[in-house]
Protein backbone atom coordinates (compact mmCIF):
# COMPACT_ATOMS: atom_id res chain seq x y z
CA UNK A 1 0.00 0.00 0.00
CA UNK A 2 1.16 3.58 -0.71
CA UNK A 3 1.30 5.18 2.74
CA UNK A 4 1.86 8.64 1.25
CA UNK A 5 -1.80 8.79 0.33
CA UNK A 6 -4.54 9.72 2.77
CA UNK A 7 -5.63 7.01 5.14
CA UNK A 8 -9.41 6.97 5.18
CA UNK A 9 -12.06 5.52 7.39
CA UNK A 10 -15.80 4.93 7.52
CA UNK A 11 -18.55 4.52 10.00
CA UNK A 12 -21.37 2.07 10.63
CA UNK A 13 -23.22 0.35 13.44
CA UNK A 14 -26.50 -1.24 14.42
CA UNK A 15 -29.34 -0.06 16.64
CA UNK A 16 -31.79 -1.47 19.18
CA UNK A 17 -34.78 -3.14 17.57
CA UNK A 18 -38.39 -2.63 18.56
CA UNK A 19 -40.87 -5.38 19.20
CA UNK A 20 -42.87 -6.83 16.29
CA UNK A 21 -45.15 -9.78 15.74
CA UNK A 22 -43.20 -12.59 14.10
CA UNK A 23 -44.07 -15.45 11.77
CA UNK A 24 -42.41 -18.71 10.84
CA UNK A 25 -40.82 -18.32 7.41
CA UNK A 26 -40.19 -21.16 4.96
CA UNK A 27 -37.98 -21.23 1.89
CA UNK A 28 -38.39 -23.41 -1.21
CA UNK A 29 -37.14 -23.63 -4.79
CA UNK A 30 -39.52 -23.97 -7.72
CA UNK A 31 -39.00 -25.93 -10.96
CA UNK A 32 -37.29 -22.97 -12.61
CA UNK A 33 -34.71 -22.75 -9.84
CA UNK A 34 -36.13 -19.60 -8.22
CA UNK A 35 -36.03 -19.43 -4.42
CA UNK A 36 -39.19 -18.28 -2.63
CA UNK A 37 -40.10 -17.31 0.92
CA UNK A 38 -43.50 -17.81 2.53
CA UNK A 39 -45.31 -18.54 5.77
CA UNK A 40 -46.64 -22.00 4.75
CA UNK A 41 -44.65 -25.23 4.44
CA UNK A 42 -44.75 -26.43 0.83
CA UNK A 43 -45.60 -29.94 -0.39
CA UNK A 44 -42.08 -30.51 -1.68
CA UNK A 45 -40.59 -29.72 1.69
CA UNK A 46 -39.43 -26.29 2.75
CA UNK A 47 -36.82 -25.20 5.24
CA UNK A 48 -37.65 -22.79 8.04
CA UNK A 49 -35.07 -20.03 7.80
CA UNK A 50 -35.71 -16.85 9.79
CA UNK A 51 -38.38 -15.19 11.86
CA UNK A 52 -39.42 -11.81 10.49
CA UNK A 53 -42.47 -9.59 10.42
CA UNK A 54 -45.20 -9.93 7.83
CA UNK A 55 -44.35 -6.44 6.62
CA UNK A 56 -40.75 -7.46 5.99
CA UNK A 57 -41.82 -10.61 4.14
CA UNK A 58 -43.67 -8.45 1.64
CA UNK A 59 -40.95 -5.80 1.24
CA UNK A 60 -37.99 -7.77 -0.12
CA UNK A 61 -37.75 -9.37 -3.54
CA UNK A 62 -34.58 -11.12 -4.74
CA UNK A 63 -34.11 -12.32 -8.33
CA UNK A 64 -31.02 -14.21 -9.51
CA UNK A 65 -30.38 -14.60 -13.25
CA UNK A 66 -27.57 -16.79 -14.58
CA UNK A 67 -25.77 -15.73 -17.79
CA UNK A 68 -23.53 -18.76 -18.23
CA UNK A 69 -22.20 -18.52 -14.69
CA UNK A 70 -24.11 -19.47 -11.57
CA UNK A 71 -24.00 -20.60 -7.97
CA UNK A 72 -24.92 -24.08 -6.84
CA UNK A 73 -28.44 -24.64 -5.50
CA UNK A 74 -27.02 -24.47 -1.98
CA UNK A 75 -25.10 -21.31 -2.84
CA UNK A 76 -28.23 -19.63 -4.17
CA UNK A 77 -30.12 -20.47 -1.00
CA UNK A 78 -27.32 -19.15 1.19
CA UNK A 79 -27.12 -15.95 -0.87
CA UNK A 80 -30.86 -15.44 -0.46
CA UNK A 81 -30.55 -16.02 3.27
CA UNK A 82 -27.64 -13.57 3.54
CA UNK A 83 -29.54 -10.85 1.67
CA UNK A 84 -32.56 -11.40 3.91
CA UNK A 85 -30.32 -10.97 6.96
CA UNK A 86 -28.92 -7.71 5.56
CA UNK A 87 -32.44 -6.48 4.96
CA UNK A 88 -33.53 -7.51 8.46
CA UNK A 89 -30.57 -5.67 9.98
CA UNK A 90 -31.48 -2.44 8.19
CA UNK A 91 -35.15 -2.85 9.08
CA UNK A 92 -35.00 -4.22 12.62
CA UNK A 93 -31.66 -3.20 14.09
CA UNK A 94 -31.21 0.12 12.29
CA UNK A 95 -35.01 0.55 12.39
CA UNK A 96 -35.26 2.15 8.96
CA UNK A 97 -38.82 2.58 7.72
CA UNK A 98 -39.53 0.14 4.86
CA UNK A 99 -42.19 2.07 2.96
CA UNK A 100 -41.88 0.38 -0.43
CA UNK A 101 -40.63 -2.95 -1.80
CA UNK A 102 -36.89 -3.41 -2.07
CA UNK A 103 -35.82 -5.30 -5.19
CA UNK A 104 -32.37 -6.93 -5.43
CA UNK A 105 -31.87 -7.97 -9.06
CA UNK A 106 -28.69 -10.08 -9.44
CA UNK A 107 -26.99 -11.23 -12.67
CA UNK A 108 -24.15 -13.78 -12.61
CA UNK A 109 -21.58 -14.30 -15.38
CA UNK A 110 -18.86 -16.92 -15.97
CA UNK A 111 -15.96 -14.48 -16.44
CA UNK A 112 -14.91 -10.85 -16.13
CA UNK A 113 -15.22 -10.10 -19.85
CA UNK A 114 -18.87 -11.18 -19.95
CA UNK A 115 -19.59 -9.05 -16.89
CA UNK A 116 -17.80 -6.05 -18.43
CA UNK A 117 -19.71 -6.45 -21.70
CA UNK A 118 -23.02 -6.51 -19.83
CA UNK A 119 -22.08 -3.32 -17.95
CA UNK A 120 -21.05 -1.47 -21.12
CA UNK A 121 -24.21 -2.58 -22.93
CA UNK A 122 -26.26 -1.03 -20.13
CA UNK A 123 -24.19 2.14 -19.91
CA UNK A 124 -21.41 2.78 -22.49
CA UNK A 125 -20.15 5.72 -20.43
CA UNK A 126 -18.94 3.45 -17.61
CA UNK A 127 -15.18 2.83 -17.53
CA UNK A 128 -15.06 -0.77 -16.27
CA UNK A 129 -12.07 -1.51 -13.98
CA UNK A 130 -9.94 -4.44 -15.21
CA UNK A 131 -10.07 -6.38 -11.93
CA UNK A 132 -13.78 -6.02 -11.24
CA UNK A 133 -15.52 -8.84 -9.34
CA UNK A 134 -18.93 -7.29 -8.84
CA UNK A 135 -20.84 -4.07 -9.43
CA UNK A 136 -23.97 -2.24 -8.38
CA UNK A 137 -25.47 0.00 -11.06
CA UNK A 138 -27.73 2.51 -9.27
CA UNK A 139 -29.14 3.94 -12.50
CA UNK A 140 -30.54 0.53 -13.44
CA UNK A 141 -30.85 -0.89 -9.90
CA UNK A 142 -28.93 -4.00 -10.95
CA UNK A 143 -26.17 -6.10 -9.41
CA UNK A 144 -23.68 -7.99 -11.56
CA UNK A 145 -20.82 -10.34 -10.64
CA UNK A 146 -18.85 -13.22 -12.08
CA UNK A 147 -17.77 -16.51 -10.53
CA UNK A 148 -14.27 -15.25 -9.80
CA UNK A 149 -13.28 -17.86 -7.23
CA UNK A 150 -13.57 -21.64 -6.91
CA UNK A 151 -14.62 -21.03 -3.33
CA UNK A 152 -18.30 -20.21 -3.73
CA UNK A 153 -18.29 -18.37 -0.41
CA UNK A 154 -16.05 -15.68 -1.97
CA UNK A 155 -18.54 -15.11 -4.79
CA UNK A 156 -21.41 -14.96 -2.29
CA UNK A 157 -19.47 -12.39 -0.24
CA UNK A 158 -19.13 -10.19 -3.34
CA UNK A 159 -22.85 -10.44 -4.03
CA UNK A 160 -23.73 -9.65 -0.40
CA UNK A 161 -21.52 -6.56 -0.62
CA UNK A 162 -23.31 -5.28 -3.71
CA UNK A 163 -26.74 -6.23 -2.31
CA UNK A 164 -26.11 -4.03 0.72
CA UNK A 165 -25.61 -1.12 -1.69
CA UNK A 166 -28.97 -1.86 -3.30
CA UNK A 167 -30.85 -1.96 -0.01
CA UNK A 168 -29.21 1.12 1.52
CA UNK A 169 -29.66 3.10 -1.71
CA UNK A 170 -33.39 2.39 -1.65
CA UNK A 171 -33.77 3.13 2.07
CA UNK A 172 -31.37 6.09 2.42
CA UNK A 173 -30.45 7.41 -1.04
CA UNK A 174 -28.52 10.33 0.45
CA UNK A 175 -26.09 8.11 2.35
CA UNK A 176 -22.47 9.16 1.63
CA UNK A 177 -19.96 6.87 -0.08
CA UNK A 178 -18.03 6.07 3.09
CA UNK A 179 -21.19 4.87 4.82
CA UNK A 180 -22.22 2.78 1.80
CA UNK A 181 -18.81 1.11 1.61
CA UNK A 182 -18.42 0.61 5.34
CA UNK A 183 -21.74 -1.20 5.58
CA UNK A 184 -21.25 -3.15 2.34
CA UNK A 185 -17.91 -4.51 3.50
CA UNK A 186 -19.33 -5.29 6.91
CA UNK A 187 -22.18 -7.32 5.42
CA UNK A 188 -19.97 -9.26 3.03
CA UNK A 189 -18.68 -10.94 6.18
CA UNK A 190 -22.08 -12.57 6.94
CA UNK A 191 -21.62 -16.27 7.65
CA UNK A 192 -24.40 -17.83 5.56
CA UNK A 193 -23.67 -21.27 7.03
CA UNK A 194 -24.41 -20.21 10.62
CA UNK A 195 -27.80 -20.61 12.24
CA UNK A 196 -27.48 -17.25 13.98
CA UNK A 197 -26.79 -13.93 12.25
CA UNK A 198 -22.99 -14.02 12.49
CA UNK A 199 -20.67 -11.49 10.85
CA UNK A 200 -17.02 -12.44 10.41
CA UNK A 201 -14.12 -10.00 10.02
CA UNK A 202 -13.01 -9.56 6.40
CA UNK A 203 -9.53 -11.10 6.33
CA UNK A 204 -7.85 -8.71 3.88
CA UNK A 205 -9.20 -5.61 5.60
CA UNK A 206 -8.29 -6.91 9.04
CA UNK A 207 -4.73 -7.66 7.95
CA UNK A 208 -4.42 -4.22 6.36
CA UNK A 209 -5.53 -2.48 9.57
CA UNK A 210 -2.98 -4.51 11.54
CA UNK A 211 -0.30 -3.32 9.09
CA UNK A 212 -1.26 0.34 9.51
CA UNK A 213 -1.19 0.01 13.29
CA UNK A 214 2.24 -1.60 13.16
CA UNK A 215 3.57 1.16 10.89
CA UNK A 216 1.85 3.91 12.93
CA UNK A 217 0.13 5.28 9.84
CA UNK A 218 -3.38 5.85 11.19
CA UNK A 219 -4.71 9.39 10.68
CA UNK A 220 -7.38 11.07 12.75
CA UNK A 221 -11.03 10.33 12.22
CA UNK A 222 -11.69 14.06 12.07
CA UNK A 223 -9.40 14.25 9.03
CA UNK A 224 -11.22 11.38 7.38
CA UNK A 225 -14.74 12.62 8.01
CA UNK A 226 -13.71 16.07 6.74
CA UNK A 227 -13.25 14.64 3.23
CA UNK A 228 -16.04 15.66 0.91
CA UNK A 229 -17.78 13.18 -1.36
CA UNK A 230 -15.83 14.15 -4.45
CA UNK A 231 -12.44 13.76 -2.76
CA UNK A 232 -13.41 10.43 -1.21
CA UNK A 233 -14.50 9.01 -4.55
CA UNK A 234 -11.40 10.33 -6.32
CA UNK A 235 -9.07 8.63 -3.86
CA UNK A 236 -11.00 5.38 -3.89
CA UNK A 237 -11.93 5.07 -7.56
CA UNK A 238 -9.62 7.27 -9.66
CA UNK A 239 -6.42 6.64 -7.72
CA UNK A 240 -7.67 3.12 -6.94
CA UNK A 241 -6.30 3.42 -3.44
CA UNK A 242 -7.48 0.44 -1.34
CA UNK A 243 -7.17 2.40 1.90
CA UNK A 244 -10.63 4.10 1.76
CA UNK A 245 -12.35 0.72 1.74
CA UNK A 246 -10.03 -0.76 4.34
CA UNK A 247 -10.65 1.92 6.92
CA UNK A 248 -14.33 2.10 6.06
CA UNK A 249 -14.54 -1.52 7.13
CA UNK A 250 -12.45 -0.95 10.26
CA UNK A 251 -14.56 1.85 11.70
CA UNK A 252 -17.74 -0.01 10.79
CA UNK A 253 -16.62 -3.20 12.49
CA UNK A 254 -15.37 -1.24 15.51
CA UNK A 255 -18.67 0.60 15.99
CA UNK A 256 -20.71 -2.54 15.48
CA UNK A 257 -18.77 -4.18 18.30
CA UNK A 258 -20.17 -1.93 21.06
CA UNK A 259 -23.55 -0.47 22.10
CA UNK A 260 -22.39 3.15 21.94
CA UNK A 261 -21.19 2.67 18.39
CA UNK A 262 -24.48 1.07 17.35
CA UNK A 263 -26.34 4.04 18.82
CA UNK A 264 -24.16 6.45 16.84
CA UNK A 265 -24.91 4.77 13.54
CA UNK A 266 -28.58 4.46 14.34
CA UNK A 267 -28.69 8.23 14.89
CA UNK A 268 -26.87 8.92 11.63
CA UNK A 269 -29.15 6.64 9.62
CA UNK A 270 -32.25 8.10 11.25
CA UNK A 271 -31.03 11.61 10.32
CA UNK A 272 -30.52 10.45 6.73
CA UNK A 273 -33.94 8.84 6.53
CA UNK A 274 -36.11 11.27 8.43
CA UNK A 275 -34.42 14.65 7.88
CA UNK A 276 -32.34 13.76 4.79
CA UNK A 277 -29.27 15.24 6.50
CA UNK A 278 -25.92 13.74 5.58
CA UNK A 279 -23.61 13.25 8.60
CA UNK A 280 -21.08 16.04 9.07
CA UNK A 281 -17.91 16.16 11.18
CA UNK A 282 -19.79 18.21 13.78
CA UNK A 283 -22.70 15.76 13.96
CA UNK A 284 -20.43 12.74 14.36
CA UNK A 285 -18.43 14.58 17.02
CA UNK A 286 -21.64 15.29 18.92
CA UNK A 287 -23.04 11.77 18.62
CA UNK A 288 -20.10 9.87 20.09
CA UNK A 289 -19.74 10.39 23.89
CA UNK A 290 -16.52 12.31 24.40
CA UNK A 291 -16.41 13.35 20.74
CA UNK A 292 -13.61 12.55 18.34
CA UNK A 293 -11.02 12.40 21.12
CA UNK A 294 -12.72 9.45 22.82
CA UNK A 295 -13.80 7.85 19.55
CA UNK A 296 -10.21 8.00 18.28
CA UNK A 297 -8.95 6.44 21.51
CA UNK A 298 -11.52 3.61 21.46
CA UNK A 299 -11.02 2.93 17.74
CA UNK A 300 -7.24 2.73 18.08
CA UNK A 301 -7.54 0.31 21.01
CA UNK A 302 -9.86 -1.85 18.92
CA UNK A 303 -7.46 -1.71 15.95
CA UNK A 304 -4.67 -3.13 18.14
CA UNK A 305 -6.82 -6.06 19.29
CA UNK A 306 -7.76 -9.35 17.65
CA UNK A 307 -10.89 -8.95 15.54
CA UNK A 308 -13.69 -11.21 16.79
CA UNK A 309 -16.83 -12.50 15.01
CA UNK A 310 -20.01 -10.64 15.90
CA UNK A 311 -23.49 -12.05 16.52
CA UNK A 312 -26.39 -9.73 15.67
CA UNK A 313 -29.58 -10.11 17.65
CA UNK A 314 -32.96 -8.34 17.58
Low-confidence stretches: 1-25
Work out the strand percent.
5-15%
Order of SSEs: EEEHEHEHEEHHEHHHHHHHE
The profile of the biggest β sheet is:
4 strands, mixed
- Our measurement of the CA-to-CA distance between the termini, rounded to an integer number of angstroms, reads 38 Å
- Mean pLDDT value: 82
* CATH topology term of the largest domain: Collagenase (Catalytic Domain)
Shape: globular
The total of beta strands comes to: 9
Question: For the largest beta sheet, what order do the strands appear in spatially?
Answer: 4-5-7-6
Rg on CA atoms, Å = 19 Å
Total domain units: 2
Q: Which class best fits the helix and strand makeup?
A: alpha/beta
Any idea what the CATH architecture of the largest domain is? 3-Layer(aba) Sandwich
Q: What is the helical fraction, as a range of percent?
A: 40-55%
CATH class of the largest domain: Alpha Beta
List the total number of helices.
Answer: 12
Note the topology:
Elements: E1 23-29, E2 35-38, E3 47-52, H1 54-59, E4 60-66, H2 73-93, E5 102-109, H3 112-122, E6 134-137, E7 142-146, H4 152-171, H5 177-187, E8 197-199, H6 203-215, H7 221-225, H8 229-238, H9 243-256, H10 259-275, H11 281-287, H12 291-304, E9 310-312
Parallel strand pairs: 4-5, 5-7
Antiparallel strand pairs: 1-2, 1-3, 6-7, 8-9
Helix pairs in contact: 2-4, 4-5, 5-9, 6-9
